[in-house]
Amino acid sequence: MNTTFEKDVIAGLTAPEKQLSSKYLYDANGSRIFQEIMNMPDYYLTNSEFEILALQAKQIVEACGFNKPFNIVELGAGDGFKTFKLLEHLVAENVAFNYMPIDISKDALDMLSKSLSNRLPGLSIKPQVGDYFEILAEMSETATPSLLLFLGSNIGNYLKEDALDLLKLFNSTMKTGDKLLIGMDLKKNPITIKNAYDDKDGITKRFNINLLIRMNRELEADFKLDDFDFYCYYNPETGRVKSYLVSLKQQSVLFKKLNKTIHFKQNELIWTELSKKYSLPEIEKLAAISGFEIKEHFLDCKHFFTDSLWEKP
Ligand code: AVJ
Fold it and tell me: Histidine-specific methyltransferase SAM-dependent domain spans which residues (predicted)?
């Protein structure tokens, strides 16, 4: 039987317009390269969201308006670097809450729990290893109010319909009065956006080429890394950054493990990622269609990014 990765690769590379899901960019190496991306000065998203959580933690928590102990549930916690500021504020104010980071990677959660319990000894942390929705479904059984965190513009990776489905699914697991704090990157000067993804140092290129390395290793493929390049563009009309690998010549790649050969034409593309940028009216529409009421948008001082607080009515 083929794994999901194998099935997705076959389907994606035999489609008329080749594509691979961006979730496959994050193997151990890819996650490390993504850390490098987050440290690039031109990748403004990191600093913008950090500023929001550092300077407006108090306002965000007040806007939640919980008057009893609550859970902060973080979906795809990553390294928890940004969330730290929010947690730090709550611990300093003696607010009663549990922090429940959810991730499919037990290693990532172990690392996060360790570093957080060192830096914030007063924090009650309950890591949850597993699938988002199973854990969210379990939590909807309890009477404790929840604040869901879906930060970092992760929603930007989803196509419109998929984003809606995901938000509706969040909504269906939430109780009346529960909140969702969702990080979204805003439309802005297109040059600023282009520079965040098309970096001069080629870190984002390495992030994408790593997907070929991953297929070489896990699927016994024979991609020649020098025969592919990286291309991305931002379309300010649609708000979409689209990223691609480009085949620099006509070539065939053998996937030994799958007993399959894939042909590439010269300049043929593999679409690897969507990074959608929103306007505030678009965000308001998305919230309404997925059954939420917007409490407040928390923007950074440059108005590059929003952490928007939504309520389940
Ligand atoms: C982690 C999905 C938010 O789309 O901005 C960064 C990933 N890709 N540079 C994004 C990414 C290229 C990132 N997200």
Answer: 5-311
